[in-house]
Amino acid sequence: QINFERLITLDEEEKINALKASFEKYAKSYSPYKFNIITKPRGDILLEPFFTDVHFGLHSWGEETGHDYDLKIAERMYKEAGENLYNKMKHHKADRVLMPIGNDLLHVDNPHNMTTKGTVQHTDSRWQKAYDVALENVIWSIDLFSTLAPVDVILVPGNHATVMETLLGKAVEIFYRNTNHVKVDVRPSPRKYYEWETVLIGLTHSHQEKKKDLPNIMSVEARPNLQIVETREWHTGHIHTQVVEEIQGVVIRSFPALALSDSWHHGKGYKGNLHAVQGLVFSRDGFESSYIGRTA
To answer: Which residues are CB-contacts of 154 (< 8 A; sequence separation ≥ 6)?
Structure first.
């Protein structure tokens, strides 16, 4: 059994090693959900289901904000939106599926119900339970989309739970370590790059960088890749709304949040945004189409 209280007293590297050791004890073999897993590419399309800003553990009281949001509601919305998006994308014959995880998947980062920087949050249930539910749902979504093509999972930690999302990413890596149809990238860099054919996608939660700087950051960090790509994009979360902008030939996309607003967002008047997951389709020629996965 994992001693979560002890984990909080350790530094980040020790936390990761402790959690990794605990999972290795029982993750000897991979047992997927009852899906027909695809281990080889079937076509020439890249699919990217983008679950962002789910905030498992967030609590919103309907009397205050106009809607309820808790762990059970978050899990229901995650699966409903995920299945809706899957049904809209499953007709594509895909080569790979790119699945970023993290991006404020979790709402708090410690037993004191605080974010990574120490901001106190309104939470539902214990943080250990929120972690368990988040991990189970991420594995469910990876297995679901792995029925379309092999999946490349990339960890992009958010600002609410940087440490716990890193630990979750390590757990996902361990869970799939004996498979050949899921690859997991949990390198510690806050920005990652994914290259497929002539498409280069930068991934960041975008709570640290300025949007106007992202094209230059890509040109420095991914310089070798730029020589062979024709489509350059950044995919981000954090602002809980859809925005598409092109700067210096680089498309920068912000994706909608799945989580409903809490008391802080409600008080600020941030209302009316789409709450869903979004999926993108790329061909060798670049971006082709977008789909919205909605809740029932």
So the answer is: 98, 99, 100, 101, 184, 185, 192, 194, 203
What pLDDT, in 10s, does the model give residues 133-155? 999 999 999 999 999 999 999 99
Amino acid in the structure at residue 223: R
Do 184 and 166 meet the contact criterion of CB atoms below 8 Å apart?
no
Burial code (b: 16+ CB inside 10 Å, e: under 16) for 44-66 equals ebbbbbbbbbbbbbbbbbeeebe
Query: 125, exposed or middle or buried, with CB in 10 Å at 0-12, 13-18, 19+?
Result: middle
The first and second tokens of residue 243, run together, are 């925005």
Q: How far apart are CA 130 and CA 275, in angstroms?
A: 20
Q: How far is CA 207 from CA 133, 157, 203, 211, 240, in A?
A: 25, 10, 12, 10, 12
- Distance separating alpha carbons of residues 7 and 18, to the nearest angstrom: 7
Amino acid, res. 286: G
Q: List beta partners, residue 231.
A: 199
Q: pTM for this structure?
A: 0.88
